[in-house]
Amino acid sequence: MWVEIFCGLIIYRMFRGFFRDDDVLDVETSDSRALFSVANRLEKLYRGKVYVGLRIPDADTGSRQNIDMVLVTKGEAVVISVMNLSGFVSVNADGSWLCEGGSKHRAERLIDPVVETKRRASILESYLEQRGVALTEGYLSCKVVLPHPKLSNIHSSYFPSEVITYDQWVQLKPEPKSMFSGWMKGAFCGGKKEMQESIHQKLNFILGTAPMWDRLELKGNKYALGEFLEFKGKREDIQALKTIKRSKVSRLVIQKTSMFGLAPSTLQVLYSPRDYRSEGASASEWKEVTVRSSTEVLFQPENSTKVRKFKVSSVVSLCLTA
Questions:
Q1: What is the pLDDT of residues 86-138, one digit of tens each?
Q2: What pLDDT does 280 receive?
């Protein structure tokens, strides 16, 4: 009996290892998942547009600064940092945070996230001015969101007003004054409605064309931000995909065509030509190619030196920045 059980476990692990996509399981996507979860909820609550994974040029350092997201609504813009922390968080006298007992199983000290977010907001404001948009006082503000349900904050009163704890996050309501009332302060000062609408349109255009990370969506509601490098696979598949370049394509999605049969399993790759019009490319402009499901996408996640390989069968969509 024990021999049969042992053999069964071996067979189960062999089959599991054969069908498992190790690349997908190897990627820690919880932070990215939290990022997009926060973005989606904010768009629904405030009927605005959220730009995720921005890489704004910093004229002072000559480098690009990462901004988690910017929420744009009529009359305001908010730079938001998402801290997917778990465990116990306390605020030190110098404003830094100490996170203990979290998923990383070690104490982690963080430079004051509010100060860092304000610094990035200042860089964004300078970038907007360089592109011809001068925001009125109070138009741009900052928030730090702590969305992890397993976060316990010690002396929460020590947190600045810009910090939204998990308990506050789950209680947000669609009404503008429910939680983020401070965001509206000064938004309409010294300007006419037409001027505010003009700024709103320009702001959406600039952020929509600003540098940002490529976004890879994987099966299982997983996301990764980083840089798409290239496709790998059979020569005929790579030849079919040669037109998919970031200079020409903004987004591609993967659709299943066949799973079984004599021919190798294939997948349809639908891709949208890059279009800088506000309405984007129409459905009729989408094109498609068919490739083997074994074709791979080479992708380098942000803050990682390791290039990851994903089979197209594990990919839902890929957004490419210009």
A1: 888 888 888 889 888 766 567 788 899 999 999 999 999 999 999 999 888 88
A2: 54
The average confidence (pLDDT) of the chain is 82
138: left (phi over 0), alpha (psi -120 to 50) or beta: left
Q: How many CB atoms lie within 10 A of CB 27?
A: 21
Q: Choose among 32, 41, 49: nearest CA to 215.
A: 32
**Domain check: are 185 and 61 in the same one?**
yes
DSSP, collapsed to helix, strand or coil, labels residue 222 as strand
Indicate the burial class of 210 (C-beta count within 10 angstroms; 0-12, 13-18, 19 or more).
buried
The residue written with tokens 């037409």 in the block is 194
Q: What pTM did the predictor assign?
A: 0.80
Q: Does residue 47 fall inside a structural domain? A: yes
User: Residue 220 belongs to what domain range?
Assistant: 213-319
CB of 99 closer than 8 Å to CB of 87: yes
Question: Are 238 and 231 a contacting pair, CB within 8 Å?
Answer: yes
Section 273-291 average pLDDT? 73
Q: Report helix, strand or coil for 108.
A: strand
Q: How many CB atoms lie within 10 A of CB 174?
A: 9
What are the backbone angles phi and psi of residue 155, rounded to the nearest 5°?
A: 55, 65
pLDDT digits (tens, 9 = 90+) for 40-76: 999 999 989 999 999 999 988 889 999 999 999 988 9
Helix residue ranges per DSSP H, 96-192: 113-130, 166-170
Whether residue 2 lies inside any domain: the answer is no
Alpha-carbon gap, residue 54 to 21, rounded angstroms: 29
Q: Comparing C-alpha atoms, which of 121, 118, 100, 120 is closest to residue 110?
A: 100
